[in-house]
Amino acid sequence: MDIAVLSDIHGNGIALQACMEYLKKHPVDAYCFLGDYVGEFPGIRRVMDTLYELQEKFPCYMLRGNKEGYMLSGMGEAHPEWDSYPSTVGMLRYGRAHLTRQDLSFMESLPATACIHIDGMKDIRICHGTQRAVNEKMRPQNRENQEILAGVEEEYMLCGHTHKVMNIQEYSKTIWNPGSVGLPVIEEGAMKAQFMVLHGDDGAWRPEFVELDYDIERTIQDMHENGLREVAPYWTRVTERILRGTRVTHGGVLGRAMELCTQETGGCDWPEVPEIYWKRAFEEVAVRCS
Ligand SMILES: [Fe+2]
């Protein structure tokens, strides 16, 4: 019994395609998706259609991530008062504009957490962040882990959301994170598409972490052709930097932009972060990190 586990695709259809091609050559019995299907990339249609196709052919365990939560809560819908903050809200709007009614009801139908139960195997708790919050990050040796894990009955747990591969044992649990298909946090080397395959042998689960190269420049070109630099100017530039290997994060640049805005104007409430502060933060942080 082999299960492919994929998380945090973030609309990167090109990276997902590389994973699917690999999985065609190394077939599995079931698929598990831990959420965040939309995000920084324009391949939303390809991603959603891939999910629907897989659902037709395989047993699938699919969760809702925080990005789906944003789509369902209307954050991507028209808020004219946010028109001047494209770097902050542009990709949310783009995501919402490219989802169909079917996509939204599909997202609505997804649970935030679930259990993979297969006869003869140990159960696995699956979640996007943690089993108690979609936005919570499960990190190794985090102070909160004891409390988080006390709420998990299963011995095995799969989490996404941090975009970092994880394979740890804490408080008698084994916790895995497959990393991210679309935008992993890579410590060293070139950008990859990450996922994992869980091999169920003789009642035990054995993880195999997979990292694949794919065409980064074509991915950036696809972002440009779909106008993402206009949709979300600095958010998209940060994505491009990450793809090309700069150790920078969207949260890091956004945080700095909000700090600069607060210093100069006395306050800054998300999402009302003026582009001028995005520009300055991007130049400061992205250039320093490259
Ligand atoms: Fe997430």
What distance separates the N and C termini?
43 Å
Largest sheet: 5 strands, mixed
* Fourth-level CATH superfamily of the largest domain: Metallo-dependent phosphatases
Order of helices and strands: EHEHEHHHEEHEEEEEHHHHH
CATH second-level architecture of the largest domain: 4-Layer Sandwich
Structural class: alpha/beta
Radius of gyration: 19 Å
**Total separate domains:** 2
What's the CATH first level of the largest domain?
Alpha Beta
Strand order of the largest sheet: 3-2-1-9-10
Number of strands: 10
Mean model confidence by pLDDT: 96
- State the assembly state of the protein chains: single chain
Description:
The chain has 290 residues and is an alpha/beta fold. It folds into two domains: 2-65 and 110-212, Metallo-dependent phosphatases (Purple Acid Phosphatase, chain A, domain 2, 4-Layer Sandwich); 230-289, no CATH class. It is built from eleven helices and ten strands. It has helices at 13-25, 44-57, 66-72, 86-97, 101-109, 145-150, 216-225, 228-231, 233-243, 250-265, 275-289; strands spanning 2-6, 30-33, 60-62, 113-116, 124-127, 156-158, 165-170, 173-178, 193-201, 204-212. The chain has a five-stranded mixed sheet. Fe (ii) ion binds next to loops.
SSE inventory with pairings:
Layout (H helix, E strand, L loop, with lengths): L1 E5 L6 H13 L4 E4 L10 H14 L2 E3 L3 H7 L13 H12 L3 H9 L3 E4 L7 E4 L17 H6 L5 E3 L6 E6 L2 E6 L14 E9 L2 E9 L3 H10 L2 H4 L1 H11 L6 H16 L9 H15 L1
Parallel strand pairs: 1-2, 2-3, 5-6, 6-8
Antiparallel strand pairs: 1-9, 4-5, 7-8, 9-10
Helix pairs in contact: 4-9, 9-11, 10-11
Bound molecules: fe (ii) ion.
Fe (ii) ion binds next to loops.
